[in-house]
Amino acid sequence: MKKITINDIAKALSVTPSTVSRALAGNTRVSLKTRNRVKEKARELGYQPNVIAASLRKGKSDTIGLIVPRVNRHFFSNVISGVEEILNPAGYNLVICQSGENISKEKKAVETLLRNQVGGIILSLSVQTQSFAHLEEVVRRQIPLVQFDRINSDIPGYKVINDNYTGAYLATKHLLKEGYKRVAHFAGERKLKAYQERYEGYLKAMQEANCDLDEGLIFDNVITREAGHGTIQRVLDGGQADAVFCAGDYSARGALDGLKERGVQVPGDFGVVGFANEPFAELMYPSLSSVEQNAFEMGNKAAAAMIKSIEGGEVVTEEFLVPVRLIVRQSSKSE
Amino acid sequence: MKKITINDIAKALSVTPSTVSRALAGNTRVSLKTRNRVKEKARELGYQPNVIAASLRKGKSDTIGLIVPRVNRHFFSNVISGVEEILNPAGYNLVICQSGENISKEKKAVETLLRNQVGGIILSLSVQTQSFAHLEEVVRRQIPLVQFDRINSDIPGYKVINDNYTGAYLATKHLLKEGYKRVAHFAGERKLKAYQERYEGYLKAMQEANCDLDEGLIFDNVITREAGHGTIQRVLDGGQADAVFCAGDYSARGALDGLKERGVQVPGDFGVVGFANEPFAELMYPSLSSVEQNAFEMGNKAAAAMIKSIEGGEVVTEEFLVPVRLIVRQSSKSE
DNA sequence: CTGAAAGCGCTAACAG
DNA sequence: CTGTTAGCGCTTTCAG
Fold first, then answer.
1. Which of A23, A274, A319, B188 could form a disulfide with A249 if both were Cys (CB 3.0 to 4.6 A apart)?
2. Domain co-membership, B142 together with B190
3. Are A299 and A289 found together in one domain?
4. Comparing C-alpha atoms, which of A143, A115, A140 is closest to residue A123?
5. Are residues B273 and B169 in the same domain?
6. Is A72–B49 a contact, with Cβ atoms under 8 angstroms apart?
């Protein structure tokens, strides 16, 4: 029941381990005949390569680390699928870590991946993250780093982001076109670029419509269902808005809950558009209009960028924009 | 920009690498003073242990592999969180692989994990899986294996499962109690124990109610939304049932869609209960009654079982039952 | 309490 | 086309 190694194959065939290693790697410098004998014997003995040993020797591994805030978010789990779809056929393995939207878990995840000598790290920042020493360390160690969605532009390397600006612009414009006049915005953590861009897209649409830009229409850091639910009450009490564009579907859901409780007619008296097109959006009553992000494609692009980084050698700083599209449902109709 | 190793620390302190290794491991056989000097110097130099090298030497790693059909299923992503909650504090890392409900991807995942010398594998079988050579290989190699949810009882090792039987029993009984007479069952792949048990729980409730057990009420392998949608048409055409207990929420959702299209009143004319309590269950209209599985706790238990396997040494075969509960919503009321 | 030495399994110069 | 040799970074006997 001993583990069988290339040495065992070598002995059985009276060749050296180097030859076996080369043969297994498909190196054409060893004769086709030998290559086949080696492969045959390997199968016969039930040989399984020890990638740990190979990684140690090569100082590199074919494992890519992926850090996401949480795997049970529709968006992130689809990104994961997208990443896998590219990475697996290319011979890379994926290790997934969760930061739980928590900076210290994020740091620990980075550290763990580095200690495991991963070949590269793909990550989306936690909302909490404000300091970036852990990312700088990755760069300093020359480990390829690809950021997606929630990124920090100051860190070198490839980045893959949604066209948040356009999505927000379209969503807001749509509400205005449907006849809503005073569109509020439930923003996310604006220190994160994704949320800042949604904010800007919203602003742009409002300015184009010559809306009197009221700071009182902007509510920062409203991303959870609870926050959405609480904030919509304040909006209704103040009476300053008749619609809201939310930077996320969860706060939109909370807002819809709150509106229902207060007996406000949606759509009609109040319009709501979210962002992310979570699976629950189409199931709600009224169904929630939302901006769909192409999570799967983001995953594809991030993985492709990672492979390029690894194989390219040098660090390239470039941002890829993934298009989004507005999905109009009931919550934002004119009536 | 060289990587710093224990040798560097050893040189800087004029001790040997062995001492550094022991000191870092907290071995009390080295003096407290030396231990502190080593740790201090390690910090100063920015030392990061190379777990790859340690794993190679020890022939074991602190990485646990987790194989799930897909991460973007509510149930599985919650299991992941539950597993992480136990594993991380215990000093283990988690590698997550997706089988995509596909036997060959599942086999490849197992192989990859073995090649990476993981310390153990936690998995839930893909629906497709009918042959188990890959699991036997894991056992043969003496790698701890913990199965959860979709398990094969013939493979040795710990198993963590839902109380599927009771859940199905309660769901079916509830429908009967609400006045539905002829309850159909949309079963899953009955070769999988989880689905077989749900089937048996259903049977038991039907028998207790002295229902004329009609084979025509049982529909095998109906787990997707599409299958549920298609099958409910046949049920309605046949007119043999006035309610259905589905082995999963997706088929229940499909059934609900189909019933709505046909203008059948739910609840009232037809009752529906699902299984899994997916997030969409409470949002549907009518909201879907379902059996909630405690995914998070399953994850906890599976992780704890894994640690026990690793630390215990010998293979213990034992099944842990995780309780479930029926959540009654609109779709199964009497009217 | 610390050191010396060997080796986990594999790869990659360098030779021939 | 194949062999020799050295070593990736760490842990662990065995000595002392």
1. A274
2. no
3. no
4. A143
5. yes
6. no
Q: In chain A, which residues have their Cβ closer than 8 Å to the Cβ of B50?
A: 56, 115, 117
CA A127 to centroid of chain Cα atoms: 13
Token reading at A139: 């760069």
Query: What is the DSSP code (8-state) at residue A65?
Result: E
Q: Which residues in chain A have Cβ-Cβ distances shorter than 8 Å to B285?
A: 283, 285
pLDDT 10s digits, A55-67:
999 988 999 999 9
User: Do A277 and A56 form a contact (C-beta atoms < 8 A)?
Assistant: no
Q: What number of CA atoms fall less than 13 Å from residue A210's CA on the CB side?
A: 0
A&B contacts, CB < 8 Å: 100
Same domain, A136 and A17: no
pLDDT at B135 (0 to 100): 93
Residues in chain B closer than 8 A to A141 (CB atoms) = 1, 3
Q: Is the CB of B72 under 7 A from strand C?
A: no
A328 located within any domain: no
Q: pLDDT tens string for chain B (335 positions)?
A: 578 999 999 988 889 999 999 999 988 888 888 999 999 999 999 899 999 999 999 988 999 999 999 988 889 999 999 999 999 889 898 989 899 888 999 999 999 999 999 999 999 999 887 888 899 989 988 899 999 998 988 999 999 999 999 999 999 999 999 999 999 999 998 888 889 999 999 999 999 987 767 788 999 999 999 999 999 999 999 888 999 999 999 999 999 999 999 999 999 899 999 999 998 999 888 999 999 999 999 999 999 999 999 988 788 999 999 999 999 999 999 87
Q: Let me know whether B191 and B226 are in one domain.
A: yes
Dist CA A242 CA A183 (whole Å): 6
Question: What is the model's pLDDT at position A296?
Answer: 95
- Domain containing A28 equals 6-49
pLDDT band for position A242 (50/70/90)? very high
For residue A146, give the CATH number of its domain.
3.40.50.2300
Q: Is residue A224 part of a domain?
A: yes
In a domain, A54, yes or no: no
Structure tokens at A15: 């060749």
- Give DSSP secondary structure letters for B201-256: HHHHHHHHTT----GGGEETT--SHHHHHHHHHHHHHHT--SEEEESSHHHHHHHH
Cis peptide leading into A156, omega within 30 of 0? no
Helices A74-87 and A295-312 pack at an angle, to 10 degrees, of: 40
Nearest to A284 among B71, B80, B283 (CB): B283
What is residue A161's three-state secondary structure? strand
Residue A284 contacts B where some CB pair is shorter than 8 Å: yes
Whether residue A222 is found in the same domain as residue A254: yes
Q: How many structural domains does chain B have?
A: 3
* Residue A256 belongs to some domain of the structure: yes
Distances, alpha carbon B207 to alpha carbons B203, B211, B239, in Å: 6, 6, 21
Contacts of residue A239, Cβ cutoff 8 Å, sequence gap at least 6:
none
Gap between the terminal Cα atoms of chain A: 73
Asked if A178 and A275 sit in the same domain, the reply is yes
Closest residue to C13 (CA to C1') is A18
